[in-house]
Amino acid sequence: MYVGVDLIGDALIKLPFARALRSAFPEHExxxxxxxxxxxxxxxxAGMTRGLIDKVLENTGTGHALAARLSxxxxxxxxxxQSRVRTTRxxxxxxxxxxISRAAxxxxxxxxxxFTKRRPKxxxxxxxxxxxxxxxxQVSEDAPISLPxxxxxxxxxxxxxxxxxxxxxxxxxxRHKIWPLDRHVVIAQNLLARGYQPVVILGPAETKxxxxxxxxxxxxxxxxxxxxxxxxxxxxxxxxxxAERCVAGLAADCGGGHLLAAAGLPLVSLFGPTNSxxxxxxxxKLCVLTAQSWNSSDMxxxxxxAVQDALTSIL
Length: 315
Known about the structure:
three-stranded parallel beta sheet; 12 helices
């Protein structure tokens, strides 16, 4: 498997792709080669992909350096996930038995869909199409994510059985992707009135958001802050384990939204200036709301009542 840039945000988008690969090829050795730097699958996400990916190579380039690192292996299948034609041409020279690339609309692939097959809009759907072509059949992305039992136990202590938890992720990597905090509070208060328990998931650096929401919503759960107080190590695995204990989730275009989706959580996903058709997470029950539906690219254009209605539809 060859990828270009593979930082944590990119890797989280590709997580269903890695799961589909393992589902399609359960007995094969899967090598993940990151050509342009490091891969989060060797660092932040290494624990959860144990069993999905056998080996991660970093800073491989595309030519002789990559060939040298794979010289002791016969390449049965090489899937090229990036789209630069020059890189794709270089990868073909590794002479795999089967080569599949999404570059130039699959022009360089040994296997291609019929001409009537439309190109998927979402990035993750394009990647899953590559797995389908490689396997010769439709595949599911249900290979299990590796979560330590201890992590699931910590999640159970932070969110004990009983309440109907709804995960809310109000933060995002950029302020332009954040839906207003006061509207998150309104949604959470409405959930409380309906018998649901809001679970606000915030990173350790989001202290201002934590203080603002906790002031107006003291009844909410803040499990990652509670985990910190208990001396636990925060991780992507813990967020997924917490999401597994919820009945639905709400998030903007952010890595946290992809973690909720990785848990299979029914999800309302909010988009403003970023491309929802390309970047929406993949989960079995998804409702995407975009600011463009209200003739804007600003997250503030998405009204509270629309988010509430969307949550109601997936609960």
